[in-house]
Amino acid sequence: MKALSTFAVLVAAALAVAGAAFSSRSSMPTLKGVTGPGYSVSLTKGGKKVKTLKAGKYRIVVNDRSSFHSSVLEREKPDKPKLEKDLTGVGFTGTKTVVMTLKPGSWRFYCSIHESQMHQEFRVTR
Question: What is the dihedral of CA 45, 48, 49, 55, to 10 degrees?
Fold first, then answer.
């Protein structure tokens, strides 16, 4: 009987470890955006500048370091439908988190006030 209960405990522990490993693999990817404090923006995944992403759902954590900048994520024309999401506005400083589904196309992360200076383009593929 003692061997059976030891076996049950071992099976339960193995299932718990397998469940934890599975959930970490299937968790939503996180993108980190930074706006300011100077005239710069960056969008990274795993510490690397985003150039291409697979289509899907992402957690986007934006750190806006200046009250005179904003953070916008946009799916650019001619991709349809065009999408423009204000993540932070002028006057805001701090961190905001949003969840978005990124569809294939050309995308841009930028400051709406200083877009010509503060932007980063990337592609989302299937």
Answer: -40
pLDDT digits (tens, 9 = 90+) for 40-60: 999 999 999 999 999 999 999
Note the pLDDT tens digit of each residue in 80-113. Answer: 778 999 999 999 999 999 999 999 999 999 999 9
**Backbone dihedral angles phi then psi of residue 117, each to the nearest 5 degrees:** -100, -30
Burial class (CB in 10 A: 0-12, 13-18, 19+), 47: exposed
Distance CA 89, CA 70 (A): 5
**CA gap 86, 84 in Å, rounded:** 7
Tell me if 41 sits within 8 A of 109, measured CB to CB.
yes
Token couple for 110: 């930028």
Whole-structure pTM value: 0.77
57's CB contacts (< 8 A; 6+ apart) are 28, 99, 100, 101, 102
